[in-house]
Amino acid sequence: MDECKPLFPGGQPNAFQQAQWDRQLAGLHKELVECRESHACLEAGLQDPRAMTEAFQFYRLVSTWLIWVATGRVLHSSTFQLNLSRFCHISPRAPV
Question: Fewer beta carbons below 10 Å: N end or C end of the chain?
Answer without folding.
Answer: C
